[in-house]
């Protein structure tokens, strides 16, 4: 079964509790939380109060994707707000090893995200330290963008690196995921798929999540 992490960026913000309760009834194992600061990406989403509110309504794994500059300053706050996985961007971290160590010291799983322009090779000296690699298949900042097709080859390359280094890192892909792109990604080696607009704009989000889970 593929892990599906629906992104609440595409939910109805006037009805977050309702939408999280819908996700609770679905086969999604994780819930993806997109935090944007208007500096690292050209958009602002939400922060700690919203994360805490979601935490109050679910026991699912909260998969927090930080699209922010200087994530080190906020790791304790994300932990206290209920994050289970914290993923920072390679492009935002000068001392990535230190940042990942701190996430793990706080008791959370540590992820690294790569923008579309960053090659897999930048991970070769850190891959054994990470629990998760999040490959961006769109430029981060907005939901509903088109999938960048060269991402499929990056997943293949990452899988090779993980096997070569005996890493336990999971491969997650984020952006433009639907049943068609999701199938290509799972066949290339992806363990987890983020899906925002595809899930929340569908007529039955729980059925859509189930279909994504069944991709193989
Ligand atoms: C983009 C975010 C994504 C976004 C995905 O910056 O990181 O998680 O919510 O949305 P879709 O699935 O609509 O591309
Ligand atoms: Zn994301």
Describe this structure in words.
Helix 6 links the parallel strand 7 and strand 8 (192-195). The chain contains 8 helices and 8 strands. The chain has one domain (3-213): TIM Barrel, CATH 3.20.20. The protein has an 8-stranded parallel β-sheet. With 216 residues, it is α/β, with parallel strands linked by helices. The structure holds D-xylitol-5-phosphate and zinc ion (ZN).
How would you summarize this macromolecular structure in one to three sentences?
The protein has 216 residues and is of the alpha/beta class. It contains 8 helices and 8 strands; from the N terminus they run E-H-E-H-E-H-E-H-E-E-H-E-H-E-H-H. The protein is globular.
Keywords:
eight-stranded parallel sheet, single chain, binds D-xylitol-5-phosphate, TIM Barrel, binds zinc ion, alpha/beta, 216 residues, 8 strands, 8 helices, globular
């Amino acid at each position: 079964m593929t892990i599906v992490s629906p992104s609440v960026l595409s939910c109805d913000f006037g009805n977050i509790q309702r939408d999280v309760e819908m996700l609770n009834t679905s086969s999604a194992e994780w819930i993806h939380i997109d935090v944007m600061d208007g500096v690292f990406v050209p958009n602002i989403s939400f922060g700690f109060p919203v994360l805490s509110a979601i935490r109050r309504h679910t026991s699912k794994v909260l998969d927090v994707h930080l699209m922010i500059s200087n994530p080190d300053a906020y790791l304790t706050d994300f932990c206290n707000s209920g994050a289970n996985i914290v993923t920072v961007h390679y492009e935002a971290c000068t001392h990535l090893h230190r940042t990942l160590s701190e996430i793990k010291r706080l008791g959370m799983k540590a992820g690294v995200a790569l923008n579309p322009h960053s090659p897999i090779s930048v991970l070769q000296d850190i891959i054994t330290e990470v629990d998760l690699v999040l490959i961006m298949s769109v430029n981060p900042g907005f939901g509903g963008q088109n999938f960048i097709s060269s991402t499929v080859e990056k997943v293949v390359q990452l899988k090779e690196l993980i096997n070569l280094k005996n890493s336990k890192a999971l491969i997650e892909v984020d952006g433009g995921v639907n049943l068609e792109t999701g199938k290509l990604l799972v066949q290339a080696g992806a363990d987890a798929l983020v899906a925002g607009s595809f899930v929340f704009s569908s007529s039955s989000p729980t059925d859509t999540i189930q279909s994504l889970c069944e991709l193989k």
